[in-house]
What does this fold into?
Amino acid sequence: MLRSFHESVWIKLEVTTLTRPVAKALAEVQFIVNGSHYIKSPNSEFYLNSDKLDSNYKVIDKVWLKAIYLKHDDNGDLIEEIFDPYLRLKPKYYPLLNGLVDAPTVNSLK
It folds into this structure.
């Protein structure tokens, strides 16, 4: 009985591991087939809402982060400048909280 329990847990983990990427790929195909498209902005900018960060200034909302990356090709440069490799906001950029993040505001704090 114990062995069948472990086998069922293993099978569940394997199925979950395999189905998530397939589901994600199918969602992307459906997105394209439906004529949907990602929202793009003409300007590289975004608002840095404090509710997207935890008390240590680390990004907790990965969906928000992905949306910012996809919104404009240059937003990745802004994100990589203001956050450390662990996605914590660098202290010198704390003044950007709850405000606009764009190249001029980032450059003014360098």
Notes: Residues 1-37 form one domain. The helical segments are 2-33, 62-71, 75-82, 103-108. The chain has a mean pLDDT of 81.
